[in-house]
Amino acid sequence: MSSEKVLTISNENFDAEVKNSDLPVLVDFWASWCGPCRMVAPIIDELADEFQGRAKVGKINVDDQRHLAARYGVMSIPTIMLFKNGEVVEKIVGARPKSDFVSMIERHL
Known about the structure:
By secondary structure, the chain is α/β, with parallel strands linked by helices. The protein has 4 helices and 5 strands. The protein starts with 6 loop residues before the first strand and ends with a helix.
């Protein structure tokens, strides 16, 4: 079950939610058929709760948003990118422990 704090990011709202955000934005590129993506999903929900007001957390379904996946060179999923001031500042590919994602966000707060 997805947290209501996790943004669903699409081509239509990408600039508003990610490129022009005053806060760092953690973006999970995922797909419903991806096993490791399902492992990461609860962690993404927890991060959205824990960093509320300090960072945004969103998800991009690569099947629905192929243009965004291609634009950012996503070759494997899950790929989790951290955007700050509209630019990718860090990237993790694959399922990792929650602590890796927490550290990634905290380095850019």
